[in-house]
Amino acid sequence: MYLRTKLILILISIISFGYGIAIGKYKVFPHDYLSSIKNQFTKVEIDVVGRNREHLINQYEFFSRKVDVVMVGDSLTAGGRWSDIFPHLRIANRGVSADKGSDILLRIDSIVSTKPKIAFLSFGINDLKEGVPINRILNDYELIIAHLLDHDINVVAQSTIQCSCGRVNQINILNEGLRELANKKKIAYLDLGELALKTGLEEEFTYDGIHLTGKAYKHWFEKLLPIVSSYDF
Known about the structure:
Layout: H1 2-23, H2 29-62, E1 69-73, H3 75-78, H4 82-85, E2 91-95, H5 101-106, H6 108-112, E3 118-122, H7 125-129, H8 134-150, E4 154-158, H9 168-185, E5 188-190, H10 214-229
Parallel strand pairs: 1-2, 1-3, 3-4, 4-5
């Protein structure tokens, strides 16, 4: 129903735009009215995403089967069908759309409760989007790593996946800091190669500048495989 309403709104916008051109002025009565409708739909969309996130985390708290591997991160992690990508593994997806490091810290118990042998971490783009300083992102990484290590979980810090956006240089700086942090904490650092190029994310790996295509997940899988294969699950 929400999609149908959005389509109706788009149709109204097109008709209104044509009307505006016809009379030689776009900002006529329908413009203000449509703007208010658009703002209402934007708020609804944000509210829906927030509720979905809350209920997803709630499920993680109730259902925490023991696994071999846990994938931790934001929407890029959430978008991976990890059980299909690694069908021979017991693997849990603990990716949540829009998550920042501080959010992951708040739900760390639902990650630890899966009792994995290894946790792969990947987040940071949402922090940068919201203006979180890089040193604070790295501090959140360090707290998460320390908590997982305290529970005898092996940790792999993955390079932050690049984007086709205005945050490429920030991501490069974050990844340099992550590499140094991994050395400091004596954990593995996994460079995701073409997904983390200093020039940004190539078009073939993204459908909107940030989120990943199937080809990108295939590349991610190929980078993860040597590490996963080194464990006796």
